[in-house]
Amino acid sequence: MNENLEVINTIKNKNWDKLKSLLANMLEAEIVDIIDYVDDDDTKYRIFSLIDSIDIKAYVFSELNLHIKEYLIMQMKDYDLKILIHSMSPDDRTALFEEISFNIKNRISALIYKSDLKEINKLLSYPEDSIGRIMTTEYLSIKLHYTVEDTINQIRKFGKDSEAFEVIYVINDDGVLFGYVLLKDLLIAKLSSSIDEIMYTDIISLSVYSDKEEAVLIGKKYDLLYIPVVDDDNILIGIVTIDDIFDIAEEEDTEDFHKLGAVGVSDDFDSSIKNASVLNLYHRRITWLFILIFINIISGYFINFFEGIISKYISLILFLPLLIDSAGNAGAQSSTLIIRSLSVGDVKKSDWFFMFFKEIFISLLLGATMSIAVALLAIFRGGIKIAIVVAISMTLVVTIGSLIGLSLPFLFVMLKKDPTTSSVPLVTSICDICGTAIYLLLATILLSS
Q1: Burial of 150 (0-12, 13-18, 19+ CB in 10 A)
Q2: Coil, helix or strand for 415?
Q3: Is 265 exposed, middle or buried (0-12, 13-18, 19+ CB in 10 A)?
Q4: Sign of the C-alpha dihedral, residues 130, 133, 134, 135?
Q5: Above 60 in pLDDT, residue 216?
Q6: CB atoms closer than 10 angstroms to residue 161
Q7: In what helix (H) or strand (E) does residue 334 lie, and over which residues does it extend?
Q8: How much of the chain, in percent, has pLDDT values that exceed 90?
Q9: Whole-angstrom Cα distance, residue 141 to residue 151?
Q10: Is 406 in contact with 338 (CB distance < 8 Å)?
Q11: Distance from C-alpha of 433 to C-alpha of 428, rounded to nearest angstrom
Q12: Model pLDDT, residue 168
């Protein structure tokens, strides 16, 4: 924010004429940062209202969090709001309608152009989290029989309203996608050349019903700036742009991090803990904490059940935290690695059997290595018998913990749930219970004989 120090000082001094001039020379993303930086909502609105260009205004608005969007909408006059919504891209309008409150949605619906409302309802008719919800219908397409000259005229006529004119899609009279041409090829081709002479047919497309995460996977795999979207008949109906792909990736990463930390994910949360209410954050965290409390109570029952052997060999208690933490840590490692691999498509649910047996060998090696270190400590603190119990227990808890950590994400995938739901706290809690049970049961068997 140092580079915008002049802007910040201008806002503090309430020099609105100078601020308007400064905003005119700033990039859209910088204006978003300035609005986010300011704490007072009235000042945020004042800054937003000083933006001259409606296109910049629409971009800035689409990048703000939900709380600020709703506040700006409530402050805006009907005509200004109508023009703003019309200037937004179709996918941004749809995203807005998905998140705003019912009353605000009704106000906008009554104001905006019928064509915009129709387009919003069309995109909202696609399944939630599908490509159809995030695609834009502002793209350039040409017919197979066009020449280069026809195509250039098409770009001049409709290019301003398109989100991407570097790539022009080629369709037939029925709208079926056949290929694409690149702007750079058009610029060096003869005006009389036919489009089918310079077009590419190695088209990568997405179904309008595909999960939006597919856009991220396809975009990364093929390094695409734009991905065409087709229906069941291969008719071109939209495109997904690189900024949408980045937004999806950020959203999914945020959601995965929350789930890995056993933090609830809800539709009314915009990922900013600074702007979220205390009650919202409380609700998102309390459920899993309660679940984990009751899971961990089971460990207490095991300790109580084996009270006899513990009272006889008090040194067993010394190694209990070490062993159960090792089980939880091994499970967390295994779970994190497999969740990431499942998320990026490196591993599929059909690979569970292979990965399970591979993990057995890895975890046995890890457990055996750790058991040597802990056995040396146990000899000095509890004697040879305790050392044997601790060493065998370490190998078993690390192995079983790793297998639990690997298997839970696969189980969630098989149940058609997000594998990140098998969060690290959940895995470690289950591994803690298993580690406690294994250690104390093994101690009872070996030390009672």
Answers
A1: middle
A2: coil
A3: middle
A4: positive
A5: yes
A6: 11
A7: helix 316-344
A8: 27
A9: 9
A10: yes
A11: 9
A12: 92
Measure the CA–CA gap between 92 and 137, rounded to whole angstroms: 11
| Tokens matching residue 92 | 């941004």
With tokens 């910049």, the residue in question is 56
Find out whether 243 and 95 touch, Cβ atoms under 8 Å: no
Residues 6+ apart with CB under 8 A from 4: 26, 30, 33, 34
Three-state secondary structure call for residue 417: coil
- Residue 238 sits at φ, ψ, to 5 deg, of 175, 180
281 versus 323: the higher-pLDDT residue is: 323
What is the rounded CA–CA span in Å between residue 269 and residue 279? 12
Angle among Cα 441, 447, 449 to the nearest 5 degrees reads 105
- Cα 428 from Cα 97, distance rounded (Å): 39
Buried-exposed string 270-299: b where 16+ CB fall within 10 A, e elsewhere: beeeeebeeebeeebeeebeeebeebbeeb
pLDDT band at 75 (very low <50, low <70, confident <90, very high): very high
Strands 141-143 and 206-207: unpaired
Contact between 201 and 172 (Cβ < 8 Å) = no
- Are 90 and 162 in contact, with CB atoms under 8 Å apart? no
Task: Tell me which amino acid residue 402 is.
Answer: S
CA angle in degrees (0–180, nearest 5) for 230-171-243 = 50
Residue type, 294: F
373 contacts 302 by C-beta, under 8 angstroms: no
Return d(Cα 354, Cα 406) in angstroms, integer. 11
Res 228 pLDDT > 80: yes
> Which three-class secondary structure state does DSSP give residue 207?
strand
Residues with Cβ within 8 Å of residue 133, at least 6 apart in sequence = 91, 94, 95, 98, 123, 124, 126, 127, 212
SS3 content of the chain, % helix, strand, coil (to 5): 70, 10, 25
State how beta strands 226-230 and 236-241 pair. antiparallel
Q: Residue 157 burial by CB count (10 A; 0-12/13-18/19+): exposed, middle or buried?
A: exposed
* Residue 73 identity (one-letter amino acid): I
C-beta separation of 236 from 171 below 8 A: yes
